[in-house]
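Q: What structure does this chain adopt?
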Amino acid sequence: MIVVYGIDQHLNPIKKDLSDAIHHCMMSVLGMPEDKRAHRFMPMHADDFFYPGGRSNKYTVIEINMMEGRQKDTIKALIYKLFEELEQRLALSPVDVEITIKQQPPHCWGFRGMTGDDVNDLKYQVKV
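A:
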């Protein structure tokens, strides 16, 4: 599950392209399948979205929640790939992008009527 926050005037026009760029990175670095896209966009009014100095109104926060198991180098590769793709595809400066990756144990995930540690038919590897 990926949640993206930003100022509505900037985020709304780029949601589709941003989702495509993020998913491309998830597929290329983590091996996620094409149909495994769970993105939520949270466009916010500028009065409700405070961000650090030195950023523009394009400041975008990306929270990636996934099952535990990815290696440190894999996570770092994903972060760097996201910075690169977002700058190339959407002209989002790395200074205007904040990425947080949260990994939870599989037993903390619930989907399709079971927990993540009970599922045995994932079409992708978690331990990469």
